[in-house]
Amino acid sequence: MMSYYKLILFSLITVLLFATKLAFSQKKIDWYATAGLGITSMRNFSSRIADLDFSTYAGDAYIAYRVKENPNYMVSAGIGVSGDFNEDGIFGWDAGLNLRSAGFSLTANLQESKGELPDFLQESLPEFGKTKSFQYLSLHVPISINYNPFKVVGLTFGADIYFQTTDRLTEREYPYGQIGRSLGFSHSYKPEYRHPFQVGGHVGIFAPLGKKVRIDITLNSDIVSRLNVSYSNPAVSDWKFRELGLALNARYYLDW
Asked: Which entry of 144, 215, 221, 242 is 20 to 30 Å from 228 by CA?
């Protein structure tokens, strides 16, 4: 864990030095305001939370269920600076600071049951058939490299650093926080949520609309898993889930 935070600190320092050097080396930098809308989900490229089999048992009584994950909305707004590496503007860069709200939702569905569980286990089960939404607020620092050879549609890619300002989703409520209330107490799995820092990446396309407006469509993904679900048997590998998302962003260049 400590090495992860050292990596975050090193990344922040590198980003600040990079942005400062670029800003002072540019003949002109442009300030812009930006806003975005999209969807995010908590899954992996080849696996989903719905792939896990949850169960709770006491003696001969047991309940088996699965939890389905669905996307939720993403909204962001902020400010940034941009510049070009060369005079023809084919290669450029930008760096921003956004306030970002994103999330996902979980729905527990009963698969099988037998007998009657004790009351304390019944109370720890999720409410089957009910969808619980999770929305978290973060400070978001995107750093991008832009390639625009045709001046009509260009390619953008880069890194994202997040600092989540809301509570860890596996804290404060028994047994495993807000996520635990939707996953339920299970003898099989234990969730752990990475907080408050996270590192991700993005790739997408953009289109300038005149000299003042630019529209971006980007795909984003966490680099390091955000939600880990460990199995009770230590010989079995943890399930790792990332925030994956699709966003439509608009920026307006300011006369600063």
From this structure: 144
Tell me the pTM: 0.84
Residue with tokens 């199995």: 231
Query: Whose structure tokens read 């760096």?
Result: 95
The answer to whether 135 and 100 have CB atoms below 8 angstroms apart is: no
Handedness of CA 236, 242, 198, 131 (dihedral sign): negative
Domain ranges of the chain: 2-253
Task: Note the pLDDT tens digit of each residue in 61-115.
Answer: 999 999 999 999 999 999 999 999 888 889 999 999 999 999 999 999 999 999 9
As a whole number, mean pLDDT of residues 40-47 equals 93
pLDDT at position 219 over 80: yes
Residue 161's nearest CA partner among 178, 139, 144 is 139
Looking up tokens 């795909």 gives: 219
Find where tokens 């992860």 sit: 4
CA distance 172 to 169: 8
CA distance 60 to 79: 59
C-alpha Rg value of the chain to the nearest Å: 22
Q: Smallest Cα–Cα separation from 77: which of 130, 169, 140, 165?
A: 140
Which pLDDT score, from 0 to 100, does residue 187 have? 61
